[in-house]
Amino acid sequence: MSKGITSRETDYSQWYNELVIKADLAEHSDVRGCMIIKPYGYSIWEKMQAVLDKMFKDTGHQNAYFPLFIPKSFFNKEASHVEGFAKECAVVTHYRLKNDPEKGIIVDPDAKLEEELIIRPTSETIIWNTYRNWIQSYRDLPILINQWANVVRWEMRTRLFLRTTEFLWQEGHTAHASAEEALTETRQMLDIYAEFAEKWMALPVVKGAKTPNERFAGALDTFCIEALMQDGKALQAGTSHFLGQNFAKAFDVKYVGKDGKQEYVWATSWGVSTRLMGALVMAHSDDEGLVLPPKLAPIQVVIVPIYKSEEELAEISKTALQIKKELESKGISVKFDNRDTQRPGFKFAEWELKGVPVRIAIGPRDLEQGTVEVARRDTKEKSVLQLVDIAIKIEHLLENIQENIYKKALNFKDTNTYKTDTWDDFIKLLDGDGGFIAAHWDGTAETEEKIKDLSKATIRCIPLNNPKEEGKCILTGKPSQQRVLFARAY
RNA sequence: CGGGGUGUAGCGUAGCCCGGUAUCGCGCCACAUUUGGGAUGUGGAGGUCGUAGGUUCGAAUCCUGCCACCCCGACCA
Length: 490
Fold this sequence. Notes:
- The chain has 490 residues and is of the alpha+beta class.
- The chain has an eleven-stranded mixed sheet, with helices on both faces. Strands 18-17-19-20-21 form a five-stranded mixed sheet, sandwiched between helices.
- α2 (39-58) crosses α5.
- The two termini are 23 Å apart.
- It has helices at residues 12-22, 39-58, 79-85, 124-134, 179-200, 246-250, 275-284, 310-328, 344-353, 364-369, 390-415, 423-431, 445-455, and strands at 26-28, 35-37, 62-63, 69-71, 91-94, 97-100, 104-107, 112-119, 143-152, 166-176, 206-209, 221-228, 234-244, 254-256, 262-264, 266-273, 301-305, 334-336, 358-362, 371-376, 382-386, 417-419, 436-440, 458-463, 471-472, 479-480, 483-487.
- It is globular and about 80 Å long.
- The structure holds one RNA strand of 77 nucleotides.
C-alpha cells in the first residue's frame, strides 16, 4: 500500500483506487466504467442492505421490483426529469444479433425496436406509470415502496464505487394524499439515512436542503446528507426528494378524497447506493488499509494462531475454537485463520488491509499463561488479555472501536469546517486542505454558478436548523440571511 | 467530443530513437529450512509484444489504419 492520507505522498484518488482493489472489495471490469464487486466487498454491502432494509420496514415500507427497461415515451412526460437524465442514458435499440459472413456477429438491422427502451437511470417514470393503476381512492394511500435494484447512468468519468456506469442502490417511491404527509416522509427518510450513516457507518453527516440548481430533476425540494472525506472533499451520501405533484401530473395519477373530489397524488423518492461503500473506505481508512466500523464489518474478529508444529497448532486450535464459540454466542462474527500456507506476519498485514476491527493472536506463550494478544485495528494498540470473560471484553472493545471511529471522523469533520466572509480566504481554504466552508451567498443561481466556475466549489447544502444570520455574499457582496455549506465534492 | 499519453506473462515494467524471436521485479508451482509483524534459498512454469495491414531476408522496434485504456477539459443532483 502506497502512502496516501497521512503522508499525502501520492494522489488521494490513486490511493483510494489501490485500496479498493487491494482490500479485495472490487475491481474494474471489461465493460466501460463498470466494476466487479468481489465477495468481500459484497459482503459489506449485504450488511448495509440488511440494516437499511430493516429500517425501511420498521417505518412501514415494503419491497417490490419494477422493470429494468423503460419505454422511451415515458421520459417525455416529465420535462425537467428528462432534461436531467437524457444526457446519460443507455438505450436499447435492437433485440437480435446475427452472423454476418464478413463482419462476424453484428446487430441485426431487421431487429430494430419500434420504440427504444431506456435502461433505467432511476425508476420514477416506470413506477408512476404503474401507480396510476394502483391508486383510485384515498383508501389506496399511502403507498410506501422500496426497490433494491441496479441502475445505469452513462457518466463520462467513472470511479470505483463513487461513480460507476452501473450501480446498485435502493430507491424508495412513495405516494401520499397530502403535501404535508409527503414532506414528513421525505424528512423521515433523510433522518433514517443520517442515522444509518452515523450509527452504523460511523460517518458524521450534515443534513440539509439542496439549492434549486442542485435539486433532483423533477423534485420540488431535495434533501441530502453530506459527508466529508479525509482529503477534504465532500461526498453526497444520500438524497431524499419531495416530488410534489409533478410525477402524478405527468402520469395522471389522481385519487378521490373523502370529500369526493379528485386530486393529484403527492410523491417522494429517496435513495442510497453502493457509493456508500466508497464513503466508508474514504472516511476511515489509513495507510495500512481499510478501517471498518465493527457494526458493518463482515468479519469482526480474526484469530491468528502462531505455531511451529502440527501439535502446537492442534493445542492452539482448541483454545481458538473455544473463544470463537464464545464470541459467536454473542453474535460476533469470527474468522479463525488457520491457513498453513501463510505466515503470521502476512496474515496480520492482510487482515489489517481488509479492515477487520479486532485481531486475536494465540501462541505457545499464551497457552502457558492463559492469555491472548488482542490488537485493535483503529488505533493499532495491542494488549495481552486474560482468557476469563474474553467474550465480554471483546464485545466491549468492538463497541469502543465503533465509537472511537465515529469520534475521530466527527472531530475531522468539525476541525475541517470553516466560516469565512472573504473571497480570498474562501479560495485559500479550498486550495489548502479543503473541507466544508460556511459562507454567505446571495441566493441566486447565477452567483452559485459563478462561484462554481471560479472555485470549483459547489453549495453542498443549506443545513437544516441553519441559524439565520445577516451577512454579505462572499462573491457579490449582496445581502444574505444565512450561511450555506460550500465544498469541492466528488 | 477536444488536448496529451499508454498498450510487452496474472500485476508492475526494460527494450523501441539505432530492426536480428524479449529484460527485471512481484506473484505462481516444487522441495528444503522457517513461522510472536508482510520469510529465505535452490529449481521450475508462464509471452499471438493491443489489433489489422504494409516495408524488409528478418518487425516489440519503422510506416498506415483500427481498437482499448489512462490523465486534463467538457460532463456529473
